[in-house]
Design brief:
Blueprint (H helix, E strand, L loop, with lengths): L2 H9 L15 H36 L9 H19 L4 H8 L3 H10 L4
Length: about 120
């Protein structure tokens, strides 16, 4: 967990936990609060997954040695695929928005998706 997220968690007091559903609330209200909490948890899980994949990429570069070698083009391919997947995920699968986010033309992004057989 990042230090910023840890600070937020530590700052939460019992008084701020009013959004946690209680048995006294109406079922519809409790359900809505639970859905909101689940959505926040899913977003956090996606963020952690993204941070983990970035850490793995960084570790691969840090462990690089003359003896082990590395296939540059395979590494670039893997990195691009993760980056494209993440952009598509963040944009709900919309290729035009994902392309804009990545600074690519939509045809370039579509070409990469097809050439990497991502669909």
């Amino acid at each position: 967990m990042s230090t910023a997220k840890a600070a937020i968690v530590e700052s939460i007091s019992k008084g701020r936990l009013h959004s946690v559903p209680s048995r006294k609330a109406a079922p519809a209200e409790r359900l809505e609060k639970i859905r909101n909490m689940a959505s926040a948890l899913l977003q956090e899980a996606e963020s952690l997954d993204h941070e983990n994949s970035l850490a793995q990429s960084s570790a691969a570069v840090d462990n690089l040695s003359v003896r082990s070698g590395v296939n540059f083009f395979d590494e670039v391919r893997r990195f691009e695929m993760r980056l494209i997947s993440r952009a598509l995920e963040l944009n709900g699968g919309n290729q035009a928005r994902a392309a804009r986010m990545l600074g690519l033309g939509t045809t370039t992004l579509n070409y990469k998706i097809k050439s990497y057989e991502m669909l």
